[in-house]
Write a structure and sequence with these properties.
Layout: H1 8-13, H2 21-30, E1 35-37, E2 42-44, E3 52-58, E4 61-66, E5 72-78, E6 83-84, E7 97-100, E8 104-110, H3 115-120, H4 122-148, H5 151-168, E9 176-178, H6 183-190, H7 194-206, E10 210-213, E11 216-219, H8 222-228
Antiparallel strand pairs: 1-8, 2-7, 3-6, 3-8, 4-5, 4-7, 9-11, 10-11
Length: about 260
């Protein structure tokens, strides 16, 4: 794999397979059209046509559900190197809002341009499908957490899962990682009030279980927390045995994603 094609997406996917030069070229094509976005800006609004996907080249984003009375719930957090819009690929319009949580760069890619991935880069297509599967498993664990755990364990689970996902993205190794959320926003993600989130975080600090140096958090009792909430890391269990072999579709060069004539 050539370092000239390094990116957060390449780094993320390379944790599972050793990408070929051609696969990295295809990813570079996904990321070629860069659009800077500021914190708080909506990149997708409810009802927008879903005409493609977006690579989050840098920064964080969140999927939000907004109620008619002004309340918001954070349904999903996107990290650097993740692909936004795969969940909507079968729908013609967006059902939820995607908002930049930090400043960052998005790379929109037309849906029609994905076709060569399935024909010329089948292993890469399988890898993205498998990563999406692990994401869905992680979301199920999160949903189960919200429905079955008490407030303390909900917040522990949220921080543990965020740490594990950051490790996959290679942007948060170890037990110290960035948490660019206000206490209100953490509450929106775990179904708690900001007052309760503040109370729990202070109790964790006082118990010597975490350190907080905003925007960073360090987990000091990670093993204990994982036992407390019976934490399952969905991202350490990818089965790649069924993946097709990597194909070499021809000379490396710019991919043709134009409409057929």
């Amino acid at each position: 794999m050539s370092s000239s094609y390094e990116s957060c997406l390449v780094s993320r996917l390379s944790r599972f397979v050793d990408l070929t030069e051609h696969e990295c070229v295809f990813i570079a094509e996904l990321e070629k059209d860069e659009h800077p976005r500021q914190k708080g800006r909506s990149v997708v609004s409810v009802g927008d046509p879903t005409d493609g996907i977006m690579v989050l080249k840098s920064g964080w984003a969140v999927v939000k559900y907004d109620t008619s009375d002004g309340r918001s719930q954070i349904l999903r957090v996107y990290l650097p190197g993740e692909v936004m819009g795969l969940a909507e690929i079968g729908s013609s319009h967006a059902n939820h809002r995607i908002v930049m949580q930090t400043d960052g760069i998005i790379c929109p890619f037309p849906r029609k341009g994905l076709a060569p991935m399935f024909s010329d880069y089948p292993r890469l297509a399988a890898l993205l499908l498998a990563v999406g599967s692990l994401d869905q498993i992680a979301l199920r664990h999160h949903a189960g957490c919200l429905g079955a755990m008490d407030a303390t364990d909900k917040l522990k689970f949220f921080l543990l899962q965020l740490r594990s996902r950051l490790e996959v993205a290679n942007v948060g190794l170890g037990n110290r990682f960035q948490v660019p959320f206000s206490q209100v926003e953490i509450g929106q993600a775990v179904g708690l009030t900001s007052i309760y989130v503040n109370k729990l975080l202070r109790s964790f600090v006082n118990a010597g279980e975490i350190e907080i140096e905003r925007p960073y958090v360090r987990l000091l009792a990670r093993d204990k927390w994982e036992r407390d909430v019976e934490f399952v890391d969905a991202f350490v269990d990818m089965d790649t045995t069924w993946f097709p072999s990597a194909l070499e579709p021809g000379p490396i060069g710019k991919l043709d994603t134009a409409e057929p004539t």
